[in-house]
Design a protein that fits this description.
The chain is α/β, with parallel strands linked by helices. It contains twelve helices and twelve strands.
């Protein structure tokens, strides 16, 4: 099996697995207990917290959560005032803002262009005094487009609003602007374990708790932390830091190979210039992406977000950039990274190209 679904999840790094194993054995202490085993577990959590924070702006604190979805819900539901976000955001953001809209808060969802980027003039008109929070994704999980986060945060601050950055896909890969106030993260997108995320809060930024029942995790998140998962997240973050240049160079090679081999029959969705090179979302007219995916059983790739798979609906991201239902259903997402080889890309693109030709031939 060739794995090309890195936006859904990444393979666990061997170093992460090794670091986590002791916490399945003798190091099982509760990090909130006062005895020696508890203190040792707490110390491991704090090391992990520093490792995760090392890739984030200075002057803030990492609060561990059960997922990035929890972190985004916490930031959105724990903030005050009207909210502005983008039409291409993850469901964790869009569903959360719709929930608070039903509860009576004002919500503005901004459109994007055919390139997937927000128009900053449109953003300036919408982000006015009285807006409490602006939320935008650094790297889009479906099409890989990189939003102008620094400029959006500046606009938010001029209006007196906080800025929330969903950095799940970009953390450790794309620089995070120093002027953000809140950042949501996920470990399993950076070769760490599933079941743990984080919310980074700039010093002085306050949000109301989402979960109640002990407040173990400052600033007010309740629930017993899992040292094993925290340690895994920390080691994964440290590896992202250590391997940043090597990983980026490797991705650029894979990107060039994939785009060259697939050729002009496939059109890239979203901006070509402003994007992360580990995400290749593209379409070929007349192709049934679902059939292509089910027929190529030796490849693991997707038609979009794993969170929306099986819904039967065209991707809201592809619809937001102006694609028709047919074009959206003719689109595939190929995600690759650290453990993908150039041979994997060569074999996979050959298989996709041959399967596409066969599908189109039978459709005539």
């Amino acid at each position: 099996m060739i794995y090309l679904d890195y936006q859904a999840t990444t393979p666990l790094a061997p170093e992460v697995r090794e670091a986590m194993l002791p916490y399945l054995g003798d190091r099982f202490g509760n990090p909130h207990s006062p005895h020696r085993m508890g203190r040792e577990a707490a110390a491991a959590v704090e090391v992990a917290r520093e490792q995760v924070a090392a890739l984030l702006p200075a002057h803030g604190r990492v609060a561990f959560t059960g997922s990035a979805t929890e972190a985004l819900n916490w930031a959105i539901k724990g903030s005050r005032g009207a909210i502005v976000t983008l039409a291409t955001e993850h469901a964790a953001v869009l569903d959360s803002v719709r929930a608070i809209e039903r509860a009576g808060r004002e919500v503005h969802i901004l459109p994007v262009g055919v390139d997937g980027l927000v128009d900053l003039d449109v953003a300036r008109a919408a982000i006015r005094p009285g807006i409490g929070l602006v939320a935008a994704m650094l790297v889009n999980n479906e099409i890989g487009v990189i939003q102008p986060i620094e400029q959006l945060a500046e606009i938010a601050h001029r209006a007196g609003a906080l800025f929330l950055c969903d950095a799940v896909q970009g953390y450790g890969r794309v620089p995070i602007a120093d002027n953000v106030d809140l950042v949501a993260l996920s470990a399993h997108k950076i070769h760490g374990p599933k079941g743990i995320g984080a919310l980074w809060l700039r010093d002085g930024t306050a949000v109301e708790p989402l979960l109640h029942g002990g407040g173990q995790e400052a600033p007010g998140r309740s629930g017993t932390l899992a040292p094993m998962l925290c340690v895994g997240f920390g080691v994964a973050a440290a590896l992202m830091d250590e391997r940043r240049e090597d990983d980026a160079a490797h991705l650029d090679r894979l990107w060039r190979t994939a785009t060259h081999r697939l050729g002009p029959e496939w059109t890239i969705n979203g901006s070509f210039a402003h994007r992360y090179h580990g995400n290749l979302n593209l379409r070929s007219d007349g192709v049934d992406a679902a059939r292509l995916i089910s027929g190529l059983r030796e490849l693991a790739f997707s038609a979009g977000s794993a969170c929306a798979s099986g819904s039967g609906r065209p991707s809201h991201v592809l619809k937001a950039i102006g694609l028709s239902d047919a074009e959206a259903r003719s689109s595939i997402r190929i995600g690759f990274g650290r453990y993908t080889s150039e041979e994997d890309i060569e074999r996979a693109t050959t298989m996709i190209f041959e399967a596409t030709e066969k599908q189109l031939m039978w459709a005539v």
